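Hey, weird one. I pasted the FMN-dependent oxidoreductase (Nitrilotriacetate monooxygenase family) sequence into the form twice and got a warning about non-standard characters only the second time. First submission, copied straight from the form history:
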Amino acid sequence: MTSSRRNMALIAFLQAQNCSNYVGSWRAPGSASDFLTADYFTRIARTLEHGGFDLAFFDDRLAMPDIYGGSHELAVRHGIRSVKMDPTVVMLAMAMATRHLGVAATYSTTYYEPFHVARHFATADLMTGGRTAWNIVTSLNDSEAANFGRTEHLDHDLRYERADEFVDIVTRMWGSWESDALILDKRSGEFADPAKVHRLEHEGEFFTSHGTFPVPRSPQGRPVLLQAGASGRGQAFAARWADVIFTHFANVESGARTYTRLRQGVEDAGRDPDSVVIAPLINVVTAETAELVERKQAMLEGLARDEDGLALLCEALNTDFGKRPYEEPFTDAELRVMSYQGLRDRVITLSGKENPSVRDFVEFSGRGRLREAEIVAGTPDVVADRLEELHGTCGDGFVIAAASVPGSYDDFSRLITPELRRRGLVGQDYAADTLRGNLGLPMPAEVAV
């Protein structure tokens, strides 16, 4: 199953913290160090808009990586995502510095409430003129639970059951105001039509919500929904809800299989696959000459440290690898309780072992290394050739990770985007004023709750 899309979606993968998803990035020569300031993020925003990016997407966790060895010491000492600011505040600063760039932030369905998330993102969508998206996560580990006063994290499938009900409530709240509900007639005193504002009455397994949502519809109908389901249950969730699905792939063959499977899942959920953008994560390393590319890639890969990767694995899998023998295989029971099942399954597949060891997780997860995502390295024409080959085969666009910030995005916008525009893969200008319009997504139906 192939897509009929022509334009290539470009999404920047960001963190409201001291590093990108590549934890060694803060030590790269091309990385700025003023990450605690608005100037840092607004500079990135203007660079991304200049480079034709549709969306700046903030990943997030609700705790510092402190499971490795039962301590936060390594995370703080090495800067392993040890700063975690609220991404929704940062994304609004970026939106205010741009006119077209979409902004997205991660919020958890496990540790927030539907009304809070619905009002928060609906307000942001109005303040940005319809350029906001919510990245839906169920969260991963017991450190996050502890920050919210809970003793342990919910089981994997139960988190998704809760998330289904959570998103159902949020989208019904967003659909409770019809687009022409506002009247604003000063002479008659009529503000809005009560018949076009609908009350929510919900009694469910996890939530009860009764009331009238107080935020009108935005120019793009409602915020765009992102999801990065990797497990089977996660992919089913994404197929039901997501406007943008964020994926990983190890090679073209596996990427093509994942792309086909996700599009089929969307269709099986009763939706048009062309109404969803599927975007795999890649790292791009580029420069003016092949020699410079080779030197830059070697320098960036040299920033990786095995111990940093272990800390990230512990965080993602909710399992302390710190005191475990390096070569000892995990038991079936130990593998079953790992939180990030998509990562676990990827290591099992790539290692060829049903019961991988700590060494296998370090070697095959790519956690903490540049190769955690597919690396596309080369001069601008070489990178553009590769992206053109992958476009429509493995995805409708790409989530571009950064090995240095803002250096990687400066390079992409200065060198790669002009070549993509020359080939007609990225527009010379933005096609619409809203994120939904720029991604080619349909307006949501007006839903009476």
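That's the output from the first submission. The warning seems to come from a hidden character in my clipboard, not from the data itself. The first strand starts at residue 9 and ends at 15.
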